[in-house]
Design a protein that fits this description.
Helices cover 93% and strands 0% of the residues. It has two helices and no strands. Helix 1 packs antiparallel against helix 2.
């Protein structure tokens, strides 16, 4: 049995909501982690010199790049969820319309048969 239009829209809206939650998390991670790392690097540049400082800066930059990659991956997942949700919604709506048309044709056939039987 096909899902109702309400169920289809409900499921679609839930998926879109989850995708938005991922986008929000990615933005927060980017803002909090990557931006904070920039301020840490600035502080290191001003207040710390030597080989250990250089090694720490390199490590921070590597981690900053890793976090940026994770942020981009989260955004890609959110985009994929949106695309899949749209595709699934369209397919379910087509299935619903087909089921409705078949049900209408069945009822029409039953009514026609009942009309012939009554004559």
């Amino acid at each position: 049995m096909a899902l109702s239009e309400f169920q289809i829209n409900f499921n679609y809206n839930q998926a879109i909501s989850k995708a938005q939650e991922l986008e929000t998390a990615a933005t927060k991670l980017e803002t909090d982690a990557v931006t904070e790392m920039d301020s840490i690097l600035l502080a290191i540049n001003r207040n710390w010199t030597g080989d250990n400082a250089n090694a720490y800066r390199t490590k921070c930059k590597t981690e900053q790049t890793n976090i940026a990659t994770i942020v981009e991956s989260i955004r890609t997942v959110a985009s994929t969820i949106r695309t899949m949700a749209e595709n699934i919604k369209a397919a379910e709506m087509r299935a619903l319309r087909i089921a409705q048309a078949e049900e209408a044709a069945r009822k029409a056939a039953e009514e026609a048969a009942a009309g012939r039987a009554a004559k």
